[in-house]
Amino acid sequence: MKKQIIIGLSLLACMTLKAQKASEVKRGEKIQKAQKAPESKKVQKSSETLEPGSYLHFNVGGGLHDFSYNLTNGTKQSATVGYTVNAAYSYFFSSHWGFQTGIGAQTIKGLSTLNYQSTTPAVDALGRTYDYRTNYQNWQEQQEAIFFDIPLVLQYRHNIGISFGIITSAGGKVAIPLYKQYKSTGNGQITTTGYYSQWNTELSDLPQYGFTSISEVPKGKPSFNPSYMAVADLGGLIRLTDKTDLYIGGYINYGLNNIVKSSTNEVYQQDGVYNGLFASNQIQKVVPITFGVKVGLYFQMRQKDSDKDGVADRKDKCPNTPKEAIGMIDKTGCPMDTDGDGVPDYLDKCPNTPKEAYGKVDAAGCPLDTDKDGVPDYLDKCPDTPKEAIGHVDKDGCPLDSDGDGVPDYLDKCPNTPKEAIGMIDKTGCPMDTDGDGVPDYLDKCPNTPKAAAGMVDKNGCPKDTDGDGIFDYLDKCPNIPGTKENKGCPEVKKEVKALFKKALQGIQFATGKNDIKPVSFNLLNQIAVMLIANPTYIIEIQGHTDNVGKPANNLILSDKRAEAVKNYLINVRVDASRLSSRGYGDTKPVTSNATPKGKALNRRVEFVVTFEKVTMQ
Predict the structure, then answer these.
(1) Residues whose CB falls within 8 Å of the CB of residue 231, separated by 6 or more in sequence, listed in order
(2) Which one is predicted more confidently, 495 or 600?
(3) What is the pLDDT of residues 8-41, one digit of tens each?
(4) DSSP labels, 348-368
(5) Does 434 fall in a domain?
(6) Assigned domain for 201 exists
(7) pTM exceeds 0.85 for this model
(8) Which of 461, 471, 514, 558 has CB atoms 3.0–4.6 Å from 489's, for a disulfide?
(9) ∠81-84-86 over CA atoms, to 5°?
């Protein structure tokens, strides 16, 4: 039994030390976390913080309960099952430490077997001496008692997680015997005899002389003193409700004093009195020892809490905590402000506000963003960002300038300005084109291109000279055909061509009032056709003119038809139709006065007007 007790005590001590060590480690982790950036967590009373206060505790249990003693002669049976029931009051004066007292009861049983013979000198009625012998043969006696317990212990508790904790206690108690009894089990027997040594004779089965056999004795009550016991408990607390915990644990009670008085009496006396083992010379010391498991409930006693925040009024430094803050208060009963921004957690919509934002939060506990650019003021290096820039700011709250041209993105109409253009951009962030030629200044090698050249410059911003005749296209009336400066970039019309066209002015004749070409004109038209085919760069407009005879409208129609008739003739003799156009001008462009017949004859004419384009000979 002692070995079992030592093992049990060792286990309790080990578990207690581990619990204490776990508590210290956890406390150290909390301190480290507190020194770092704290995280906002709603405080739950069933979690890390245990409240001081009063508790009622009721439990029942059972285990091995035993009277520990040594028999002078005989054997003692191992411990038997016993039971305990307790009601206690606990007061925790801090989150972890408290004391407990109360009342309880426990049952203890013992069983012993005697196998020996005792001898007592005696004198019979005739004055003769003899030995009174008592022989115990497998004689069994059972002892049982109920003790009334009054404990006083020191307690320690610690929560592990939200709904589980451990609790341990150590101290002492007074166990007062309320009920006690011994009885024989009916097994074995006690035989008494008288031995006369002078005759070497042993007398038995003479009840009238006290020599008999018995197998059962009346029940008796042993005399017990109160036991002063050392006690230790270790168990777990499982949270059932805010005020109730289920307790499951183990207990050990060890008697520190002898509860019986020493005696020299025999178990069974010569006069037929049965003293019992505990009042005999067979046992000198009896110590009760119990250990086992028990189950019970802890009830937290109600304390006055006016604002219902879970902190008793006597400890509440904020007695008017609003309902919304309940569950988010500290141990003093005040609303928590986990991030220290001055806004209590129950109102704080941004519970992890960094220290740098202190003093720059709104009523909801969130960092202010005065210019609404998405960057809180405590980080914003440009606190007056205009509305137009919202969505175009960097991490410092300043307007972005993605292309680095000095114009913020929200104003930049050319957000991809190349590095080469930096320093040569306008207020909209676009590369400047000072001369308006369509080539930005940073690429323009001819920055002073005249306006007339706009649209006629190369990739370097310089005026083009497509035909390479030394005359810029914007000055060249024939930009695709090399020409002369005197002729504004166009080729000189050959003398023979001019002569032929001059001859055609009066040489092409029509029937009077009609657009029919007279055969006399065919030879001249054929010459013109040959010349046009030989000069494929000539573009010809055939113009018809009349004198002022007749109505102007009729003259206009007639001149148009005559010019078209010439064009069709030339097409028929294989002049490319794409190079020819015709138009009548009536009497609107006279070359001389119509006052004389000669003047009218000069005004009736067909003109050939030459322009140029570059063609590819195939």
Answers:
(1) 151, 153, 169, 170, 171, 172, 173, 251, 252, 253, 254
(2) 600
(3) 545 544 544 454 454 444 444 544 443 443 333 3
(4) -S-TT--GGGTT-B-TTSPBP
(5) no
(6) yes
(7) no
(8) 471
(9) 170
Burial class of 348 by CB neighbour count within 10 A (0 to 12, 13 to 18, 19+): buried
Which of 300, 328, 355 is at the close of a domain?
A: 300
pLDDT of the residue at 7: 54
pLDDT at 591 over 50: yes
290 vs 86: CA distance, rounded Å: 14
pLDDT of residue 209: 87
Single-letter residue type at 516: D
Domain count, the chain: 2
The per-residue pLDDT for 244 is 93
Is residue 314, in this structure, part of any structural domain at all? no
Amino acid present at 573? V
**What pLDDT is attached to residue 29?**
53
Amino acid (one-letter) located at 245 = D
> Which residue(s) pair with 76 in the sheet?
112
Structural domain boundaries, residue 505: 495-612
Helix (H, G, I), strand (E, B) or coil at 33: helix
Q: Which domain CATH number covers 531?
A: 3.30.1330.60
Pair 313, 305: CB distance under 8 Å = yes
Q: How many CA atoms lie within 13 A of 353 on its CB side?
A: 30
Cα-Cα-Cα-Cα dihedral sign, residues 393, 395, 397, 403: negative
Give the C-alpha separation, 401 to 404, whole Å: 5
Domain boundary among 271, 300, 329: 300
In a domain, 567, yes or no: yes
